[in-house]
């Protein structure tokens, strides 16, 4: 890699407006020390693979010390590295090595809650009711004659009540697992702490933060009952006061050289409310979950694409296009299902019959669709290998707290977190030398990065070609697009200069429009026909 690709903090580029960002779930990416768990040494060893793939940045899921009740989203120290992942020193080396390869680093920040092993929570437990230590969280007496009922009717997003009672009789709030107490953002100490944490990592050279549960920080202090509501205005989601937090954060990121960014995780039903987080003095971008959740249907996808572009343009922010992440069923599986191909947390549809060849064809077409749309694109580790959801993990090996908290009604998210197959013919497929913390299927022998690198028709080769073209092609990335009139089950749009993307979501081949040449196709074409579930990039006049 030439030095001109190196990232200098002094050259603003608005890089984030169309970056291809690769998500690393560290535990499952690559194991450098043979303990069966991915780590920073593993990531460092695989940086050349990522540079070769053609991505612009890596987003790391939380890398902080954590008891791993929720895969690291239960943070016990926001200023260090989880020992099973490595050390702070190694993280600094990794940042420098990535920058030298032209790759930026985004890390997860988890401001809604801590781990119950965070020193603040331990101090809160020790200090007792009424103490300033308890004011950093949401401690309340219970209801009922002896305080034996939770303070309100809120439910944890992982199932069960959102309150847990401690030994002295008070209850504390946790929107996620009972080992993830929610911070009280009405307390100025919490604000100050996070401003300091942001600086700690910006000082170490990171290029941005992905903000976990970004809409959830502010709660209505009256803690009113919700009477079973999970949508609509909720007293713990998208409260207006949350924007003040991000305005203060933006001042910090703007005070650093280069363009340091914030990417929000907000699952919100209203695209206009969503766009408010992307106003010029708040976050830079956010995950497009409407697109991720959308079924493989032309009409619905066109509507979501248009509404994403409309809402983002209100605030001048670039949309993003996301197909999978560490919380959702992998899209090869979703798109291969009979019936509904969308995604819903409330119904993971594990066990629904899957036509994996069909899902894979669609996933290939979806990759070309996302990479041709204006804005940024996310790639979740393993999607470039065409990995699918592992639905048959034995119950006793499941680790996601969702599984237990829903009393096994929801299998949880382990199936999209199975360690990556890198090479070799049998598990752990060169993930490391010491097994893998979740079992990999033998079928992955044909899906390793090594096996695919040699095959020009593999998913990996498609991603490499597409990401490279996307980077070099003036029409792609940030900018505008125009819909092309097409058959009902076809998505077609142009981008200037001279680029057309067409995706056939019908069950029959459709004729290609007039074109000068074919740039890339997600599968074989049939003469001048685009087969079903195939996408093509065309050079047009
Ligand atoms: C986000 C994360 C998810 C985590 C939850 C609680 O939704 O993506 O993995 O469990 O927040 O932190």
Question: Could you give a quick summary of the protein structure above?
Answer:
GO terms for molecular function: alpha-amylase activity. The protein is an alpha/beta fold and 541 residues long. The protein has 13 helices and 18 strands.
Write the layout of secondary structure elements.
Blueprint: E1 20-24, H1 40-53, E2 57-60, H2 88-100, E3 104-109, H3 119-127, E4 139-140, E5 163-165, E6 171-173, H4 188-203, E7 208-211, H5 242-254, E8 261-264, H6 271-275, E9 285-286, H7 289-293, H8 298-315, E10 320-321, H9 331-336, H10 356-372, E11 376-380, H11 401-405, H12 449-453, H13 459-472, E12 482-483, E13 490-495, E14 499-504, E15 510-511, E16 517-521, E17 529-530, E18 534-539
Parallel strand pairs: 1-2, 1-11, 2-3, 3-7, 7-8, 8-9, 10-11
Antiparallel strand pairs: 4-6, 5-6, 12-13, 13-14, 14-18, 15-17, 16-18
The chain binds alpha-D-glucopyranose.
Alpha-D-glucopyranose is lined by residues 70, 73, 110, 176, 212-213, 265, 326-327.
């Amino acid at each position: 890699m030439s030095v001109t690709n190196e990232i200098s903090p002094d050259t603003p580029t608005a890089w984030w407006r169309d970056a291809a960002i690769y998500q690393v779930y560290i535990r499952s990416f690559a194991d450098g020390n043979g303990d069966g768990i991915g780590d920073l040494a593993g990531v460092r060893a695989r940086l050349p693979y990522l540079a070769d793939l053609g991505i612009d940045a890596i987003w790391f899921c939380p890398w902080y010390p954590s008891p791993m009740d929720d895969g690291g989203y239960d943070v016990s120290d926001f200023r260090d590295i989880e020992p099973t992942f490595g050390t702070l020193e190694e993280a600094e080396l990794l940042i420098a090595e990535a920058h030298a390869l032209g790759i930026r680093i985004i890390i997860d920040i988890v401001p809604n809650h801590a781990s119950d092993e965070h020193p603040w929570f331990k101090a809160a437990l020790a200090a007792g009711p009424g103490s300033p230590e308890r004011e950093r969280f949401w401690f309340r007496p219970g209801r009922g004659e002896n305080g034996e009922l939770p303070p309100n009717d809120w439910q944890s997003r992982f199932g069960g009540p959102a309150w847990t009672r401690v030994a002295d009789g008070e209850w504390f709030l946790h929107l996620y697992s009972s080992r993830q107490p929610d911070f009280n953002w009405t307390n100025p100490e919490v604000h100050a702490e996070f401003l300091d944490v942001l600086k700690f990592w910006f000082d170490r050279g990171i290029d941005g933060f992905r903000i976990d549960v970004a809409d959830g920080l502010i709660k209505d202090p009256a803690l009113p009952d919700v009477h079973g509501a999970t949508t609509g205005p909720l007293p713990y989601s998208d409260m207006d006061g949350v924007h003040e937090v991000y305005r203060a954060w933006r001042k910090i990121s703007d005070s650093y050289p280069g363009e340091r960014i914030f990417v929000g995780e907000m699952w919100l039903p209203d695209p206009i409310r969503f766009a408010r987080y992307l106003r010029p003095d708040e976050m830079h971008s956010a995950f497009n979950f409407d697109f991720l959740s959308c079924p493989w249907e032309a009409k619905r996808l066109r509507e979501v694409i248009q509404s994403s572009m409309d809402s983002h343009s209100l605030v001048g922010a670039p949309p993003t296009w996301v197909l999978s992440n560490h919380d959702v069923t992998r899209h090869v599986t979703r798109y291969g299902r009979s019936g509904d191909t969308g995604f819903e947390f409330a119904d993971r549809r594990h066990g629904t019959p899957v036509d994996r060849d069909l899902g894979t064809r669609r996933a290939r077409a979806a990759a070309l669709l996302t990479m041709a749309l204006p804005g940024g694109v996310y790639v979740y580790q393993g999607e470039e290998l065409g990995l699918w959801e592992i639905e048959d993990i034995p119950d006793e090996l499941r680790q996601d707290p969702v599984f237990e908290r829903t009393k096994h009604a929801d299998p949880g998210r382990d199936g999209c977190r199975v360690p990556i197959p890198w090479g070799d013919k049998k598990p752990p497929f060169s993930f490391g030398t010491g097994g893998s913390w979740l079992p990999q299927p033998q079928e992955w022998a044909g899906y390793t990065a090594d096996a695919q690198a040699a095959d020009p028709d593999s998913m990996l080769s498609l991603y490499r070609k597409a990401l490279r073209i996307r980077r070099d092609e003036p029409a792609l990335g940030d900018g505008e697009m125009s819909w092309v009139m097409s058959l009902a089950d076809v998505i077609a749009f142009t981008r200037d200069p001279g680029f057309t993307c067409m995706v056939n979501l019908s069950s029959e081949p459709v004729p290609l429009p007039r074109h000068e040449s074919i740039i890339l196709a997600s599968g074989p074409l049939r003469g001048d026909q685009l087969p079903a579930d195939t996408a093509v990039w065309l050079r047009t006049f």
